[in-house]
Amino acid sequence: MKTLADLEEIRKRTLDNLNTRKDEHATRVVVGMATCGIAAGARKVMAAFIDEVAKRNLHHVTIAQTGCIGLCRLEPIVEVTKAGEEKVTYCKVTPEIAREIVASHLVNGVVPRQYTIGHYENG
Amino acid sequence: MRELSLHILDIAQNSIAAGASLVTIDVNAEPEKDLLTISVTDDGCGMPEELAKSAADPFTTTRQSRRVGLGISLLQASAQRSEGNLTIRSAVGKGTAVSATFRLRHIDRPPMGDLAETMAALIAANPEKPDFLLKVSANGRYFSFDTREVKRRLTGVSLSEPEVLAWVRDHLHEGLKDFHGGAPI
User: Fold this and answer.
1) Which of A102, A120, B45, B181 is 20 to 30 A from A20 in CA distance terms?
2) Is the peptide bond prior to B111 cis by the omega test (within 30 degrees of 0)?
3) pTM for the whole thing?
4) Which residues of A touch B69 (CB under 8 A)?
5) Exposed, middle or buried, B141 (CB in 10 Å: 0-12/13-18/19+)?
6) Can you tell me the ipTM of this complex?
7) How much is the pLDDT for B53?
8) What are phi and psi of A60, to 5 degrees?
9) If you average pLDDT over every residue of chain B, what do you get?
10) Closest chain A residue to the Cα of B6, Cα to Cα
């Protein structure tokens, strides 16, 4: 069972590691969580990001949400911003694609173009 | 929305946009009354009476970019399909309470779905503010989860830490799994 008491252990471990990761560059993953995004499956996509980021222990990744950006037909939409790089917008993201984005873009630095909004809209 | 828990995720977004410090989510199933009540209550900016009255209208929205807002109207439609209704109480500067009722055993009532995943998504995307308090009661069983309690135990460590978020998801799934299956909610 996962109990509240486990948090004490997690806290200790995290504080011990804090010093060793000061030089990591922040990455931001933003999931569209308006009515359109939620209806299109954004929750499952968010869950996949949480899970994959935890499994890989990617401390420098923050997960956030945004409202509707006016492209409801392309939801779930996910924006990824790595420090010092341009924002990449992915559309029609599934949990599987979310995991691929983590492995390919967040970890290895290779943007999977086939899922980006530019590729989708322009072929 | 195919699940009530998705409606909850959606309605809670309004509370977040209203600048709430605490969002309380109550789910209460009463089989003897054939009644399911879901409410989302916040201490955000609230709405003037006129706006609160028309909030369930899909052509009411405060945003500038478009003239429609569907979240509350979809929940209302879902409640009405199951012979329930939706009420909004709001006071400017105090907060808003959106409450939806459903006939628990109505054939058109959507299932609760994955409430744990809804809470995890809310918490992951809003690790600092607001706090979330979940209270679920069904068939004499009760489960509650309070991010303020989690933060007290994590002093100095953010809820956004991957390991903490993983714990939140697992803890909620375990705590809520008794409410799934066997058809309680």
Assistant:
1) A102
2) no
3) 0.90
4) 35
5) exposed
6) 0.87
7) 83
8) -85, 0
9) 90
10) A38
